[in-house]
Structures are given as structure tokens and as C-alpha cells.
Amino acid sequence: MARLRWPLRAYILAVLGAALVALPSSAAFRGDLRAGDTVLLALVTAMAAVGQLWPVHLSVKVKMTVDETATFAAGLLLGPFYAMVAAAASTLLALHFRGVRQRWYNRGFNAATSVLATGAAATVYAVFASGPLVAREPWAILLAALTKYVVHTALVDIVVALQVRRNPLVGWWSLHRRLLPYESALLVLGALAAIAAQAQPWTLVLFGVPMAIVLLTLRDSAAVREQTKSAILELADLIDLRDPYTHGHSKRVADLSERLAKRLKLEYSQVELIRDAARVHDIGKIGTNDTVLLKPGPLTDSEQQEMRRHAEIGHRLLKRLPEFWEGAELVLSHHERHDGKGYPRGLAGDELPVEVSVISVADTYDAMTTDRPYRKGLAWDVVRAELIRQRGKQWRERAVDAFIEMMDEERRVRIDRASAA
Questions:
Q1: Is the same domain home to 218 and 256?
Q2: CA distance 20 to 120
């Protein structure tokens, strides 16, 4: 956990602490479990665990499961304490049986978010429900469902925002609008399951069928998103082909960026985000005039302005796509400088996440070492000197230092192999 930045570390610990406080606190208000309730607790725990065994990955950082039906039913039927017990137990069981290798704080955070969202929903329902029959409490059910959705999405969105250093409200609707129908369906199923289970606990099992249907629908949606992502990547490659001197540029920048991100020991999710953003960082050049893009000599001021528009064009295109909206800000900022003299917004210092420097260093290196109509690719010694000269000005110091170390090390390895051969 020491590898995490302190705001992210503090937030994760705060969420874990809140769950550890909420669970025993609610125990003081728990009622006695009847024989039927014990069966319900076992069933909802098992169903929630099974619902998490096959998560659907919708983006680099976003995945969805169908356990909401079972945990929401638990909140309506069993009260806050037992509902939170079911949420925590099912999450830990699912992680165990999936064989997922996660650090303790990742497991803890996943369990804590489920505990807090389920507990909040159950508490709201307990406060507003006027009687024991779930079927007669539509407004209490609606408030509980809204609470569960808002608490869970807020907890997850904030941790993702801290990981990639962005405002959690930016792009919120772009991310959640496609997921909202699925989330709503799972919560409605949970309410119906609770109503049915009050009469016959075993009827909960029947709701596994619509849960499976939602899961399959989600997988179809994820497949469409993957196809969209592949199409955008192919488009980025085609844009590189417009200029024969930049053929393969985006792929090379993505590869360099990924290697540098790993060397900086960034989190897996950050590495994936950087790689995808680097691959499409020049996609905005689709809107750049050929006479400017293919000009063999220096650009005039007006032509420079035309060329610089590609960052904003790329951002406008990518922010509309759920598959890329997380990286759209990195695409917009890949020509910003650490000293504030970049474009399009003139951001500086900590306003720019380290991911921007990673992509920018790799982009500059590939541009300097590639042959152009007006010059041959520069030697490593020249490029190295320029990187050092602009260290702390154009890029973060740590990104430059790590890149130089990486390239020096790779060159030594190649020389040693050549000598051995």
C-alpha cells in the first residue's frame, strides 16, 4: 500500500474504516433471525457470491457484476446488519473462488464498498418503511434503491478519480448512462425477489435466471464496446498512414509509454490507461488539413495553430466514447508542458498528472529519432541531451530520469548481446 499516493491511500483507509465501524454499530440494532431468515441470509449470500464470479469489464477501470439483485433483496428483508454481513461475505467468497490475486487493500475496498452501499440502502428502507410487508412500501424501496446506487457509484468513482487524478464529476454521465438501465434492472429484480421471498424464501433461486440474462446482455454490450475500441485504434493507425514519415508512430509511442509507466511502478490501471491514450494521442489529426500535416518544411504561425487543434479535436472525439473517455484528458494534454508553456490550456506543475509526462516524453523521443523530410532521425546522444535540458521544464523530472535510465539500460543490453554474438 506504500506505493499508493497518499490521497488514494487515505481514501481507501477511510472507506475501510467506515465499513469496519458501520458493521458493528448496526449490530446493536439487529433483530433476532427466525428460521426462515437464516435460510434467506444463506441464499442471498450464495446468490451474491455467484453473481460476482463472472465480472464484465467495460473499460480499463470499470467492471460490473450482477450481485446487486441479491444484496438489495437482503437489505429489504434482513435489515442493515445482516444485509452488510451478506454483502461482505459474498464479496470475499467470490474473490476467493475466482482465484483473483489482489492485494489485501483491494479486497478490503471491494468488500467495504458493497457493505456501505448495502447498509445505507437497508438503513434508508428501515427508516421509511411503515410495516413488515415489502410489497406495500414502494416509496421506501425507491429511496433505498437510489441510496444504494448513489453510494456505490460515488465510492468507486472517487477511487478511480484519485488513481487517474481527475474530477470524479467529469464524464460522469458518459460513464454511467449506458450502465444505468442494467443497474436499474438489477435493483428492480432485487425488489421483486424480496417481495416473493417474504412468502417463500426458496423463490429467490428463481431470480438467478433473470440475473443471468442481465449478465449475458452486459457481455454483449461489452463485446460491442470492444469492437468500437478496435475500430478507433485502427482509425488511429490509418491517420498515421496519411504521413509516410509517421507510419507506426502511435504504436511506437504506446509501446514506449507502457514500458516507461511500468518502470515508474505505476498501478496496472494507470499503465493500461496510458497505453490506450498513447495509441490514440494523435487521432485528432483526422481534422488537420493535408497541406499542413504533410508540409515538408517549417510551419507558419497560422499553420502551427491549425496543427495544434489536433489535441482538442481528439479530445472532443474520444470523450464521447465510454471506451476512451478516461484517456481523453490525457490526449487533450499531451502537448502541455510542466512549466506551463504548452497548449491548449497552458497547464503547469501538479495540474498535469504524471501520465501526461509519460506519453509526452515517449512522443517526443519517437518524433526526434524518426526520419523527417527536412532532417534525419537524431542520434541517442543528441536526444538524451535534449531530454536532460528540458527536464523539469517540458516534463516531470521523474519521467525524464526513468526514461533515460530505461533507454540507457536497453542500449547496454543490445550492445552486450551484439558483442556476445
A1: no
A2: 14
